[in-house]
Amino acid sequence: MKASFRDTVTRAPMIRLALCFLGGVMLGSFIDVDLIVSGSIALLMFLGWCALTYWERSFERRWWRGVSLMPSLFVFGIFWYQLRTSDHGDRDIAAARADANGWQMDVVEVISESERTVRIWADANAVLDSSGARAVNGKMLLTLLKDSSSIIPSVGDDLLVLARADTIERVADPGGFDQRTWAASYGVYHQCFAPAGKWRVYKKQGGWTAMFEGSRQRITQWLRNSSLGARERGMVKAILLGIRDELDTDQKSAFVRSGTMHVLAVSGSHVALIYGVLLFGFSRFGETRKARLIRSLVILLVLWFYAGLTGATPSVLRATVTFTLFCFSDMIGRRTEPVNSLASAAFLLVLWDPLMIWQLSFQLSFLAVLGIAMFYTPLMNLWAPPNVVFRYFWSLFSVSLAAQSFTTPLALYAFKAFPVWFLPANLIIVGLVALGVYGGAVLLLVHRVPFLGEWITWLMQGLLKAIGVISDGFAHLPGAYPAVRIDAWQCAGSYLLVMLVAGWFFERWHWARTGTIALIIALLISWGWNAHDRNSEQRFVIYDERDHLACAVESGRTLTVFVDTVDQWTSRKITQHQRSMGAVSVDTVHGIPLRVKVGKVDAMIIEANTLLPDSGSGAIPTVLVLSTEGRYDIALLNERFHPADGFVLGPAIKAKSRAFFRRWCREREVPFHDVRLSGAYVR
Questions:
Q1: Helix orientation angle between 360-380 and 268-282, rounded to the nearest 10 degrees
Q2: Cα(218)–Cα(445) distance, rounded to whole angstroms?
Q3: 581 burial via Cβ count (<10 Å: 0-12, 13-18, 19+)
């Protein structure tokens, strides 16, 4: 009997319990409830459930036990989020950073590594100041410059960092990467930048991942010395180890635009590939209890070895925990329900770290697996392929469509663009990447074997070149990555639409068809209304540049950019800005105007060493932009114009001058915005 979409949901009781707990965790991040009150209510509701479970043993009313547990899990979620996030670690760092000369930290995760820098999530354990060392508790984002003698930190290492910490307040360019929101999703609100020579590893890691550090270093070193080309070597490191430090910008852009970026991040798909090939390899040994036990133990050892080899990144750990539950179910002879195991994994992981629920990587990875678990089998059942080849491609089509069905609404909300050619791109690239994962593993084992190692290397180089060419081809097809903008309510409506469409096609529910049509109409009306509102919006933007002033004016769907020179970085900012606002026309004007009026903003742009500008037709500017390095009579400017939004310090102004202007404004309580320090200016 074929499993239906409804069966997939009804056979997963944990999904209902997990959703209640996760809903409580999410609500707990928005409301402020006393811990004693929320904990007491959760405990009383749990005791009530225990009493009901003990006294109510009727088979007909057994469903009451599950229903009565849901509210207690919801309240417990509120209590648990506030309990786990109320350690005041951020306050410790905020209070200590003014006098701090250095920090003692533990490495939690190595986020990225490039030729010059390493970015790290770290726990601060102690602060060093004039009085000595004292304990603190908090998280920080570290950016470490390295040189040839630097020992690269690993998870669990203890660091001594002789640098000051600062708050993460940088405003992102429109459409650019929002570091504040990203860091806040990890509970991090402070950052520390340390040049080479101002930090060192004084104690190497002692955790379980330490056993794999030597292997990671040997693999990385071998890849550097191999005959693989630079682009192919970067792809092998990304596919096998999740290290993307050697991928160039064009490679990353091609995979993003083709909708296949997930293959370059070691995540659930890689763990699933390993799990699948091991499961297939053991299938010939039958389904006896002994065979299941040996199979599950071997799979667990391999999966956790791979997790350690890749540095135990959160994405790999999430997938490994999920497939560990599959293995435990297999050991005891229980039927494995993917949705049930996935819900259990989500429950356990959020129980371990409630902040994880707001991390985009966590959301997308779980939604992708949830989509596959719920829709893969019903999609496969829609057609019976006539042979093995067609069945293979139909399975790739089904798994790609199932994964995208649950990730697309959130991706549209987060990235404001959609990879149109994701289905054909995934059909080809995912299959080739699977071969790349297996081929890379074989290559690591036989690379020193004469002739065989060279032959495998040659095949891998051709395979990786093909992946790069194909992804680049899809990325540059017409309309490959159009801008699409939806708000939070439209995102939620899109998920409801997915479920209604599934009920219509897979279960033939007539009410689902009616609901689908009604919801599509509602979403289109909402989209049109938002577009109408967007057409009337106006904003003034000064980009987060490093050495020159570049500003832009949004007027409905028209974007006008004023800049003296356009380099590749400014061009990228303009493209991101255009996509984020959905501009239909972009005008680039060479030269910075003296006055910009848009909406409620009236900006006067002033160069150094010039005569005091005239106020024009009597209108008082709301903001004064100091654009170049040199002398300004800031007191006279403030006395004459009294700008309501104060001053903007342009990126070309040197550090010493900016420090003087900031101090002058603070002493007189005059608003200011330092572009070099605080990022983009958006009004």
A1: 40
A2: 12
A3: buried
pLDDT score, position 1 = 41
pLDDT for 269 beyond 70: no
Residue 563 CB neighbours (<10 A):
22
Distance CA 143, CA 118 (A): 6
Helix axes 249-257, 230-241, angle to 10 degrees: 60
Summarize the confidence of residues 116-126 as an average pLDDT: 88
Each residue's pLDDT tens digit, 16-71: 888 899 999 999 888 888 888 888 988 888 888 887 777 766 555 666 676 778 88
Question: Would you list the DSSP string of 615-675?
Answer: -SSSPPPSEEEE-SSS---HHHHHHHH--TT-EEE-TTS-HHHHHHHHHHHHHTT--EEEH
| Secondary structure of 435-459 in HEC code, one letter for each residue | HHHHHHHHHHHHCCCCCHHHHHHHH
Query: What is the DSSP code string of 256-277?
Result: HHTT-GGGGS-SHHHHHHHHHH
Question: Which CATH architecture fits 89-206?
Answer: Beta Barrel (2.40)
With contact defined as beta carbons under 8 Å apart, do 111 and 119 qualify?
A: yes
State the burial class of residue 125 (Cβ atoms within 10 Å of its Cβ: 0-12, 13-18, 19+): middle
Cα separation, 157 vs 135, whole angstroms: 18
3-state helix, strand, coil in the chain (%, to 5): 55, 15, 30
Q: How far apart are CA 179 and CA 168, in angstroms?
A: 8
Helix (H, G, I), strand (E, B) or coil at 187: coil
Pick from 588, 525, 584, 575: nearest CA to 555: 584
pLDDT beyond 90 at 675: yes
Beta bridge partners of 283: none
Identity of the amino acid at 101: N
Query: Domains of the chain: which residue ranges?
Result: 5-84, 89-206, 216-475, 488-535, 538-682
CA distance 27 to 79: 10
Angle at Cα 431 formed by Cα 427 and Cα 436, nearest 5°? 145
Please give the pLDDT value at position 60: 58
b/e code 285-301 from CB counts within 10 Å (16+ = b): eeeeeeebeebbeebbe
Taking a C-beta distance cutoff of 8 angstroms, is the pair 576, 550 a contact?
no
Each residue's pLDDT tens digit, 386-429: 887 788 778 878 877 888 888 889 888 888 888 888 878 877 88
Least confident of 22-26, 34-38, 223-227, 676-680: 223-227
- Residue appearing with tokens 């002692």: 206
> How many CB atoms lie under 10 A from the CB of residue 191?
18
Of the pLDDT bands very low, low, confident and very high (cuts 50, 70, 90), residue 650 is: very high
How do residues 538-586 score in pLDDT, each as one tens digit? 999 999 998 889 999 999 889 999 998 888 888 889 988 988 888 888 9
Could you list the beta-strand ranges (E) of 60-177: 102-113, 117-129, 132-145, 158-161, 165-167
